[in-house]
Amino acid sequence: MKSIAVIYHSAHGHTAHIAAHVVEGARSVPAIDVQGLRAENVAAQPERLLAFNALVFGSPTYLGGVSGTFKSFMDTTGGLWRRQQLAGKLAAGFTVSSLPAGDKQSTLISLFTFCMQHGMIWVGNPILPEQHQGVPYEEAANRLGSWTGLMAQAGHASPADAFAPGDVKTARLFGRHVAQTLNRLAARPQEALP
What we know:
Blueprint: E1 2-8, H1 14-27, E2 32-38, H2 39-42, E3 54-60, H3 68-75, H4 78-82, E4 90-97, H5 104-117, E5 121-122, E6 150-153, H6 165-187
Parallel strand pairs: 1-2, 1-3, 3-4, 4-5, 4-6
């Protein structure tokens, strides 16, 4: 069985809400064990990441980047980076902000750069925006048009009521995509690098 950790920070519950749907989508794929982990809890023992085959990172977008709490977690992985212990693991990312753009792309690029420095293999978001197929905008998967990773927009309501149905659907599809990618790669024989 392959394993995925969804590591996230959520100050007000909105990013946690999307993380739960990413977990749900990944769990829909057979032979995948998925755990949701708060970044601040993993920061005390970053070696916990070594137990997983894939890591999905999630942070709210604050002032054009990851939250301070999530950045602190990232910084605790310096020892893993020096030894390249996360190299070859699958990685993906998601972010939430209250505006449709909200500079979420710069947060995803920060997550991508972090994973590239660790030698991880990035999994993007291949979901085509459904509004182009006639699905109403609020219900459309990938309505915000992000291919780098998952983006979601949170209103100022409680987390359960803050998201368009399309963003929740996208989170589940994204989680499923990461898990399916992990299964596909696990089914291929390992080749030695030159």
